[in-house]
Amino acid sequence: MTRDENTTVVTGLGLVTPAGADEHTFWAGLCAGESVARRCGELAGLPADFACRADGTDLDEAVGGRAGWRMARFVKMALVAARRAVADAGLRPERWDGDRVGVVLGVGVGGVSVLVDNVRRLDHGGPQAVSPLLAPMMMPNAAAGEIAIDLRAHGPSLAPSTACASGATALATAHDLLAAGRCDIVVAGGAESVLTPLVVTAFAQMGALSLRTGDPAAASRPFAADRDGFVLGEGAAVLVLERAGHAAARGGRARAVLAGAGAATDAHHPTAPDPGGHGARRAVEEALDSAGWAAHEVDHINAHGTSTPLNDAMEAGLIARLFPHRPSVTAPKGVIGHTLAAGGAIEAAATVLTLEHGVVPPIANLDAPPAEWDIDCVTEQPRRQHVERAVSHSFGFGGHNVALAFEQVRHADR
Fold it and tell me: For this structure, is 164 an active site residue?
């Protein structure tokens, strides 16, 4: 194969997000630039009583059949997104060589709501009240396993857990599997659903959440001077990745090129980023090197942009130092909140859509970043821009940093 034939391409997207349960609704929601955060009855009385829920899909109906009873909510989201991505890619699992199909699905926490429910059962009803399905429902790798079962995928099935970078880690791992010739197709992404009182309280207690309870829609404010924390969200995104030669041979459509990926670790603190951004910079530089790009060739940055004081300051400084030509910057968490393990995958999908549409969505709740940062944040309205090369950042608790380099499809890659 030529180098072009070995290029990793995105051939399918599947989404379940707070901004929409399909690609078109999600994209319209991002471009509207309005937060979907709202109060949630189950969180009443907590320091943060609001979140970004993904309620646009009846998950039980979408999963269908009888299998849904054994799945936690995050697994259902992942499975629905995976089916949508495979359909979007024009693939039919009953016709593919399952031995050459991998699944990589990043999850940070797993079925925490199932665990909490069964703790209550144990306390009130004793051992016999605990569900025999507790273990398989709560384990983080359940999503990857259920997707592999559903799609008849017998290649590597992996469940990377790198906190908020898990979805991006999954895509980077998929890129490596294809480059190594281990698979012809990899179904990859991330999923998370932890909107329970316990988890919300845990994040609030550590000072990570915005406490703007009087105006939830204004709470997630990436790169704003008065940001005070993130808003929890939930969702899933799955991308189908193939080598360009494989996709072309079957008549598949390449939507974007995953030209490179990079990963590095802060080794600094369990939750706080390295203020100097050294690990994050190494991840971005590795992605650029693997893509064969110079920094000045990047047109757009899809930022991690959590709306926390420490992350946004670190990331803004990184962007200003590494990209002094001021590429456009967006941050989807202003609209959909922080979907944790799903975030890197959802934002990768958003980056692909920016490349396709030539539009950069605005950052919700941002008039302008502090002037001393000198970064070009897109605000208020979507910006029409021809974007050929874009980088998507994902930075997770534990110091996990991942960067993905996406490129417009050239004629030779189609």
Answer: yes
Pick the catalytic residue from 52, 164, 183, 377. 164
3-state secondary structure string across the chain: CCHHHHCEEEEEEEEEECCECCHHHHHHHHHHCCCCCEECHHHCCCCCCEEECCCCCCHHHHHCCCHHHHCCHHHHHHHHHHHHHHHHCCCCHHHCCHHHEEEEEECCCCCHHHHHHHHHHHHHHCHHHCCCCHHHHHCCCHHHHHHHHHHCCCCCEECCCCHHHHHHHHHHHHHHHHHCCCCCEEEEEEEECCCCHHHHHHHHHCCCECCCCCCHHHCCCCCCCCCCCECEECEEEEEEEEEHHHHHHCCCCCCEEEEEEEEEECCCCCCCCCCCCHHHHHHHHHHHHHHCCCHHHCCEEECCCCCCHHHHHHHHHHHHHHCCCCCEEECCHHHHCECHHHHHHHHHHHHHHHHHHCEECCECCCCCCCHHHCCEECECCCEECCCCEEEEEEEECCCEEEEEEEECCCHHHC
Q: Which of 304, 377, 393, 400 is catalytic?
A: 304
The one catalytic residue in 175, 300, 338, 393 is 338
Query: Could you confirm whether 40 is annotated as catalytic?
Result: no
> pLDDT of 322-375, one tens digit each?
999 999 999 999 999 999 999 999 999 999 999 999 999 999 999 999 999 999
Residues 246-294 have pLDDT tens digits of 999 999 999 999 999 999 999 999 989 999 999 999 999 999 999 999 9
